[in-house]
Fold this sequence. Notes:
Chain A is mainly α. Helix content of chain A is 73%, strand content 1%.
Amino acid sequence: MDLFVTSVIESFKLCADPVLLLILCGGVLWGAIVGALPGVGAQLGIGILLPLTFKMTPVYAIALIMSINVANSFGNSIPAILMGVPGSSSAVLTAIDGYALHKKGQSGLALGVTYFASIFGQFLSIFFFLAMVVPLSGLMYVFLTPEMAALYFLGCTAIISITGDNILKGLAAGAFGIAVSLVGRDPISAVTRFAYTADLRQGLDVVPVTMGLLAMSEMFRSMRQSFKWEEISESFSAKFPSVKDLVRAMPRIFIGTAVGSIFGAVPGIGGNTAAVVSYQQSKLWSKHPEEYGHGSIEGVAANEAAQNAAQAGEMVPTFGLGIPATSTMVLVFAALLMHGFVPGPQLIRETPQLLYAAGGGMLASTFILALVGWHMSIYTLKLVTLDRQLILVGCVALTLIGVYSLNHSTFDVFVLVLFGAVGYYMRRYGYSVAGASIAVILGPGLEKNLRAGLGLVEGNFWAFVTRPWTGIILAVAFALLIYATIGTIRLARRAAAVRRRALAVHQAKEAV
Amino acid sequence: MFRADRPGTQLRPKAGFQTMTEDARTAKSGTNGVMTNEDEEKVSLETLEITMDKRVDLAVAVATALLGAFILIESRDIRLGTVTDPITSRGMATITGTFLLIAGIVLAIRQLLTWSVLPGHLVPEEGQEDEKGHPASWTRAFSIILVSALWERLLEPVGFLFVTPLFLFVASWFMGVRSKGKLIAFPLIFTLVTWVCFDPVMGVRIPLGPLEPLARSFGIIP
């Protein structure tokens, strides 16, 4: 309890640091910009700035990343409403209802409720994050290597839920990530594996690998096409919604915040499911369920509150257990590693300043967003007048320079470009780059703790899995695995059935 | 300069622009019950694109299998070390290699079995789709990858101040920028601003190549 209260107080104290506030203003602006630009998201936004944080103090660096994440989550709903283009997966439902409202001439209502729900959801979930993550820090006294191995396995179950339509390709991507993590020294016996050059002896650095897979590959993919953002935008006028409209949205915002915070914290579930469940529950309790999907303000509120609250929820396993379950959290994890910190229970006990930085960063960013978010949502649409081609080229250059600056190593840049190219093909052909990145991060920890844990119980596998905490965590992991597998298979089958029908229609047309 | 990919066949093209990240596609296809099956089917039918090259997909599957085989073979040469445990240094490599080998083979067989379902070399998209209504070119993306690799090769011998403007000029040209003002001003201003930010301001030493002695004599770098 003490640590929780201290965390809240220290987080608020950080909000009064003028230097931090200045940095966060930049972060919020950057996050909203990358969120509002179609096809650009948090992965790129954080990825490009990640190397630049190297020279900052860890507290400022973590707070800056949080601010990008917070603002991006709000910013990605702007193109969803005004263009029908979801900036991220969790904004898909906003794109349906928000865009429908925009087409009805109610852009101001949609943007205003989004702004209100985002800030409310984000603000409340920060306390949930601190309340959840603090008790986890106590586990460092209970958890030994078998428990940690079980935790890493739990984190790996997240891969199954992000495999996409083709599960086998998604799992192959995960295996590829683990294979990459094997390069270098064996964590137990210290023998080298797959180290064909001197550069490979210490293994591949996580930052260039994950940035290559997540950020660089997306830029290469975007560069397949050359067009102007202006071509997809249209003019609009927006008026802030009335108090009555906001009051009507309030219950949905509470539902969204609760669902988002809880679901976001479970590895393998995350923000997408949280947004969907919140929307579903909101529809279930609504007096106007027929509006959902055709421009429902309640639907927008529920979805926005949930996806923003899930941002803080997703940080619970990242900070508390050292398990990043989403691609954005992989980059947060990489940032902590870059500064010499290993996320997990030990981090919170030994370096609570980073927890305050995360909490303070989110709090201050939410305040900044509350002050400027509404105007930002109106003006960010002007960003589409920027030259997309030059921005993409500049982003690639900035990432190359940034990664070089980390270790003054051209080998790191080579790794970045190589994994960018590999990631490009993975994205194009349905292999999950997020799954591969999670595996790269969790692979070494899984192997190290599994082998050390088995050593602890003298190789007795039964004794390993029947340790109380290990057994509980493994049971949860398997339950989530089964849930995610069934869900993924069901969706993949449905997608395949639809595809078959579409093909049949297509073939019939061809025959005619 | 670049030949656009064959546009492919789009079933019931949907008006307007649509772009989605990989995760967005997953979420859209998997909104557990929010949309009815009928709605979902309608959306999918409207947006299904036949734009994925099955030959490349097969090649990627074969590459996956070959990578698995390579890991499997190489793992046999990994020393066991002095610390022994049930999994050993080879364990994870063997498991991953085997999985990649099997997955690659299954994916390749699956692609071959459905090879003749559609005429031509395009099949329904499984990966991240391009933005509709705008031609896409893999050669453009590949050219950018190549110039990025060249930037890495030339950074230390040629120096940042020479190689970066060149990279930006060539990459902008590949991206279809033809305005002389943009092609000249953007690389020069971007290079100068990033160098100033990284080197003198943030203290990150960036190689200047042949300009290094000159910069040192002027006291710009220590």
